[in-house]
Specification:
With 123 residues, this protein is mainly β. 0% of the residues lie in helices and 50% in strands. Strands 2, 4, 5, 6, 9, 10 and 11 form a seven-stranded mixed beta sheet that branches.
Length: 123
Amino acid sequence: QVQLVESGGGLQQAGGSLRLSCVVSGRTYATYNMGWFRQAPGKEREFVAVVGWSGTTTSYADSVKGRFTISRGGAKNTAYLQMNSLKPEDTATYYCAYGDSASNYRSQDYDYWGQGTQVTVSS
């Protein structure tokens, strides 16, 4: 019923920038949150950022705070992750997530997931 598609990943040098996009289609919900997670090979999936249903409230992992910015489009079915000052440790598959939980920092707080987009940062 719900589909999420990420795009915008690629290869960048350290210090560069990338902008990821996530589009939700199918059945959508006016009050759902949209979040970004990432997972490197052999590591657990970790929270990156979340934007609330209104698009006015955001939260970030300490590792990306000040470098990444999450936002929503006017129609609220699109989320963006602007990634600046990229570091090699940002290399991972990035996943968009969609859910309505009051807590937004765990994978289990989300109901739907995209297929992921690869981000690789060279040193």
